[in-house]
Amino acid sequence: MFNEGDSSAWRAARRRGASRLLTAIATLLAFFGSGPAAASRPNILWIVTDDQRSDSLACYNRGTTGRSRSRLGYVESPNVDRLASQGVLFTNAYANSMACAPSRASMITGKYPHRCGIYGFEQTHRSAGCTSRMIPEVLKEHGYQPAAFGKSGVRIFPREWMNQWKSPGFFNPYVSSEALEKSPHSDFWFNRPWGRHDGKGMVLGTEEVYRYADGSTRRFWRRRVDREITPEEAAHRREVEAELDILRTYTRSNPDLIIGGRSPNVASATLDGSIARSVQQYLSHPGRAYDSLVGERLQGPDPAKPIFTYVGFCFPHTPVLPSDEFRERFAGQAYDAPAFTDEEAELLPPSMRKLRDDMDFSRMTYDEKQQAIRDYYAFCAMGDSLIGKTVDAFRDYCEQRDQEYLIVYVCGDHGWHLGEQGIEAKFTPWTQTVRCSFVVVSSESGNYAPGTVCHDAVEFVDIAPTFYEAAGVPLDAHPGLDGVSLTTTLREGPQRDYILGEMNQVRGDWAYLRSEDFNFAMRVRPFFTKPG
After folding, report:
1. Residue 209, φ and ψ in degrees, nearest 5
2. I want to staple 509 with a disulfide (CB 3.0 to 4.6 A). Which of 102, 308, 503, 525 is the partner?
3. Residues ≥6 apart with Cβ < 8 Å to 237
């Protein structure tokens, strides 16, 4: 399964020999000549977004195609563009799985899904002796203060807290996206009340709730298991959906996902806006207690210790609801929606053809496709503004204390299709799902030279060794890591001849390999099942 542009990007990396040698020499000179500050442990900011395509970044498009627009059309990312100009943009950062939980687990453990034990969306615990250690756990042991805000998504819990969705305890504080959704600081959430029906306890239904800028809410039942939706309730739902221009995945097997619409609130009061504000709250209370947005009394960072701050934004995962101020900037844009015919679909392997049928985008109308693409990129632009606010708050904290810092931005825990292969989804071994990007900036610019674009293949498992190296954690104390630090790739060139990824659920068990010359994916079991 070849994808246009992959081979040229890999070959471009191979042609950088002379410039790489000069960069490596400059890096080594900067490293050895930087004095005592080089040995200091930097504050670390780690930002991860959800389902974000790399072509939503103008800097990525310029680095890979020479123009700011994506192949589909207009995008806007001034804050990430600025960040990339101050450090290194990695254009071939591959997810080790095409689903949220195993992809995120490969980052936080530094191990492939089949080695860290996070195969899909099952909950896991850490009681077994072979359990993989996680970044915040290791850094905490080395004097860091791990704090987390937003979506975690790795589904790793203490055994005694299984099914309670509690943090493993390495982050303090931990302000989760779930907690923010339940507070008055989100523009949208699901209400799933528990009750009894036919003598059994169960979730009685799904209610969508929208919060407006004036604090009011509008809600409607999407479904109930204990009774039919009344005509009045159905009419109210249509009224709210029309007001917010809601577009759903009606051509998919799951017809309820929101892939277009407008938020009823301003950007700062959306769920992602509240995640950014939670980070700002934390960093603006050094050494002091404060009342968080979720109503908890939390403690700000100790300025005498290095901080490790993880920020998991939810955008542009469904529901795709950009706020008006960003949606309006994209209103006049027309996009080149990818075409994919039924004849092309017949050439797919049976399992991928089934996935295409279940996640079909091709049967939507022209206007619906335009809205889906336009609102997706507008949502990414809104998120870009929040990334900018988060980075600025972190930098201010570091610079006020004359402390070194390292910023790592992962553009998407995997990607997203906007009509390629006929789908709007993820879960595939194709480029739009598995090829992502990193932006890395360091106050010690010798490690990550400003304005560098690296086309070498790196993987999500490289995140953990990158943080450990920066924090002074001996890598030989963690011999099970599958990745290598990003600085090693910058100094020495490509560290692998191919990348490895896998998917152990959804359409059966898959593995994929990618190199400069080929893309290969295959079923590794002859049946559809969960791992076991």
Report:
1. -125, 130
2. 525
3. 220, 221, 222, 229
